[in-house]
Amino acid sequence: MSQRITHLDLDHDGKLIHPRTGTPLNADEVPTHIERHLRLDPATTDTFLYVHGWRTKPDDATDAAQRLAALIDDLIDNQPHHYPRLTPFRPRYIAIRWPSRSLPTPQGYRTIRDRAAAMSHPGQAARVLAAILGYYNQHRRTPAPGPPRLKTAGGQYLHAVGHSFGGRFLAHAIAQASTKLPHSPRTLAWNYRSDQYPWTLDSFTTFQMALPHDSLAEAPYSRLLEDNVLNAPVAMTFSPHDRALGRWHRATEDGKEGIGYAGATAPESHLHTLRLQDTGDAYIFPSARLLNVDASHRYRASPARIEGAHSDYFHPESAHLLLSLANQAR
C-alpha cells in the first residue's frame, strides 16, 4: 500500500515555510498552520515523523520517507503476527524537510552540523515540533490511570525517526525542549498556544546518527536519559562500513567517530548493544535507556560508494526495528 507523505518544510533558521507562498511563518501562525496542514484522521494509530540527513534535496527526502513507509507497510502486511499489539495499525507519515545541502567538504560538514543545532533550539524548529505535539494533544483522549503520554486509549502514538544529521537534529530538539514544569517531573513540555502540555514521545530511532560517540553523556543530549522524556529507549543503528561517520567524521569532530560508525560509548551505565534482528526474529528489548543496534551485517553498501554504508538502511530489517519498537510502546 502506497502512503502519502505529508511535508513540513523549514528554512535555514528552522522556521516553517508556507507551502504555497514559500515564505516563513511567524511563531504565532505555526499552530494554526499545523492544524490545517496535518488534518489528523481520528482513525490514525501511529504517526512516523521522519527527518533526513546531510546533503539531501527536498525531493530525495520525500523519496526516502516514501521508501521507509513502503518497507513498514509491506512488512506488517506480510507478518502482522510479529507485532500483536499493533492491531489495528493505521499509520501516517510526515517528513520534515530542512536545508541540509552543502559542499562535501569538512567546512560544508561543519556548516550543516552547526545549522542542525541552531535550528533545533527553542524558538526555532522546536516550535514546529511543539505545534505537532500540541495538535495531537488537542485530538487525543488522555489515558488514565497513568502519566500523560502521546497516545490514547484507542491508540495514537508518535514515533520520531531520523537519519544521520536528522537524528542529531531530533536529539537536539528533544533535549532542548525537555524542561522542568512546576510540580511535575522533567518531561517534554511544549509551549502550544497559551498552555503547556507535558508528555513523552513513544519511540525515537536514529539510523546512522551523525553525532560524536560520547556526546550522549554531555549536555544537552544527556537530557534524553532523564525519566519521562521518552516512553522508549533511544535506538541507534551503527555499522563500521559507514565511512562517512568513520574517517570523515573523525576529520571534522576532533578525532571522534560518529555514533553511526561504532555506536555510542557513553554513558556506559545506560548503554546496551543488540543485533539488528532479521525480520523473522523477535526483539527482546532490555531496560537500558540507550540501545546500540549493530547493523554491520546488513548495512554494508558497495565498497565503491565514497560514504560507504551511511545511507544503506532501506531494508526490511530497519522496518522490523521500527515496528518492534512501536509494538513495545503499547
Characterize the structure shown.
Helix 2 links the parallel strand 2 and strand 3. Helix content is 30%, strand content 18%. The chain has 330 residues and is of the alpha/beta class. It is built from 8 helices and 11 strands. Strands 1-3-2-4-8-9-11-10 form an 8-stranded parallel beta sheet, with helices on both faces. The chain has a 3-stranded antiparallel beta sheet with strand order 5-6-7.
Keywords:
single chain; 330 residues; alpha/beta; eight-stranded parallel β-sheet; three-stranded antiparallel β-sheet; 11 strands; globular
Helices and strands, with pairings:
Layout: E1 5-9, H1 30-38, E2 46-51, H2 58-78, E3 91-97, H3 106-119, H4 125-138, E4 157-163, H5 165-177, E5 178-179, E6 187-192, E7 195-199, E8 203-207, E9 234-238, H6 244-252, H7 259-262, E10 271-275, E11 290-294, H8 316-329
Parallel strand pairs: 1-3, 2-3, 2-4, 4-8, 8-9, 9-11, 10-11
Antiparallel strand pairs: 5-6, 6-7
Helix pairs in contact: 1-4, 2-8, 3-5
Number of helical regions: 8
Euclidean distance between termini CA atoms: 24 Å
Which regions have little confidence, pLDDT < 50, spanning 5+ residues? 141-154, 180-187, 189-197
- State the major sheet: 8 strands, parallel
Task: State the total count of DSSP E strands.
Answer: 11
Strand order of the largest sheet: 1-3-2-4-8-9-11-10
Helix content: 25-40%
Q: Per DSSP, what share of the residues sits in E-state strands of 2 or more residues?
A: 15-25%
How does the overall form come out from the CA principal axes? globular
What are the secondary-structure elements, in order, as H or E? EHEHEHHEHEEEEEHHEEH
- Structural category: alpha/beta
Gyration radius over CA? 18 Å
Overall pLDDT: 81
